[in-house]
Amino acid sequence: MSAPVVLQVAASPVSPALVLRPWRMADVAALVEVSRDPALRQWASSVVDNDADGTRWVQAQQQGWAAGDRFGFAVLEAQPGSVREQLVGNVVLKEVTSGKPAAEVGYWTAAHARGRGVASRALEALTNWAFGTFEADGLERLELLHQVDNLASCRVAQKSSYDFDTILPAAPPSFPRDGHLHIRRTSA
Questions:
Q1: What is the 3-state secondary structure (H, E, C) of the chain?
Q2: CB atoms < 10 A from the CB of 141, how many?
Q3: What is residue 80's predicted lDDT score, i.e. its pLDDT?
Q4: What is the pLDDT of residue 33?
Q5: Closest to 35 in 3D by CA, of 7, 65, 74
Q6: Is the model's pLDDT at 7 over the cut of 90?
Q7: What pLDDT is stored for residue 11 in this prediction?
Q8: How far apart are CA 60 and CA 68, in angstroms?
Q9: Measuring CA to CA, how many Å separate 182 from each of 29, 64, 188?
Q10: Alpha-carbon separation of residue 78 from 11, 15, 23, 84, 138 (angstroms)
Q11: pLDDT (mean) for 2-18
Q12: Sheet-wide strand order for 163-168
């Protein structure tokens, strides 16, 4: 991927438009701020406590793009009356390998943006991009995993047509509880 990928999600009657773009170093301060949320920290696999952590996290996202196997997008929302965009979440396509039929998606939403359809709208854009970009390379399905007690994540999966497949056993430390596996196929 030579040119940066930017995905646009149109405004809905109740939600402003979203822009999904690769993470930048300029996002570190906003990332640190949203990472202070206890609910986000409960589900996150990596903790961002300060600018150094945020810098490492953004660099890891950039390295994934460079390697072509992990594509993390900052999810931004235009603020009414402002030219600035506010960080409202993250979506990621990971474990992308040529010829491999499955890849994984993930997401999180900033506390101030929850309950407004940000995650499901961003996930739909990511899903369409992933299939459009990698289906010819063998991608047939996307897998979404979340801990069984993360009910909000389960609702996002269902709203985004990711069908429940099975319960996965816990795999500490990164996945300390049993999880749900949801799957969306290219024909969905």
A1: CCCCCCEEECCCCCCCCEEEEECCHHHHHHHHHHCCCHHHHHHCCCCCCCHHHHHHHHHHHHHHHHHCCEEEEEEEEECCCCCCEEEEEEEEEECCCCCCCEEEEEEEECHHHCCCCHHHHHHHHHHHHHHHHHHHHCCCEEEEEEECCCHHHHHHHHHCCCEEEEEECCECCCECCCEEEEEEECCC
A2: 16
A3: 64
A4: 95
A5: 74
A6: yes
A7: 87
A8: 12
A9: 32, 23, 13
A10: 10, 10, 16, 6, 35
A11: 84
A12: 7-9, 18-22, 70-78, 85-94, 102-109, 141-147, 179-185, 163-168
pLDDT digits (tens, 9 = 90+) for 50-92: 999 999 999 999 999 999 999 999 999 976 666 678 999 999 9
- Does the pLDDT at position 44 exceed 90? no
Which residue do the tokens 């990332």 mark?
31
What tens digit of pLDDT does each residue of 109-164 get? 999 999 889 999 999 999 999 999 999 999 999 999 998 998 999 999 999 999 99
What gap in Å lies between CA 149 and CA 138, rounded to an integer?
32
Q: In 3D, which of 72, 54, 69, 96 has the Cα closest to residue 5?
A: 72
How many residues does the structure list for the chain?
A: 188
What tokens appear for 114 in the block? 């929850």
Contact assessment for residue 177 and residue 151, using Cβ atoms and an 8 Å cutoff:
no
